[in-house]
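Hi there,

I know you've been waiting on this one. I reran it after we fixed the sequence typo, so this is the corrected version. Both the input and the resulting structure follow.
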Amino acid sequence: MEATVVNFRMGRHHKKDKQMVVKVATSPDAAAKFIGKTITWTSPAGKEIKGKVTQLHGRTGSVRVHFSEKGLPGQSLGQKVKAH
């Protein structure tokens, strides 16, 4: 299934580089099924960066994804990712 990278997870003063907000569904009930799954973003050069869905983000069907190795680059905003 495909999802869209919406934004970095941000606080008042800091941007959290390893946490992203990803839109996976249209309702929070449908998005809750993705918790614990893996998200993969493929760069234009072919490198894959993987992250894990940790929890819901808001009431619009978005989830928080934590990338343990390194965060996604800014060019990934608005692009599609694959959910496994």
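Quick highlight: The chain has one domain: 2-83.

Best,
R. S.
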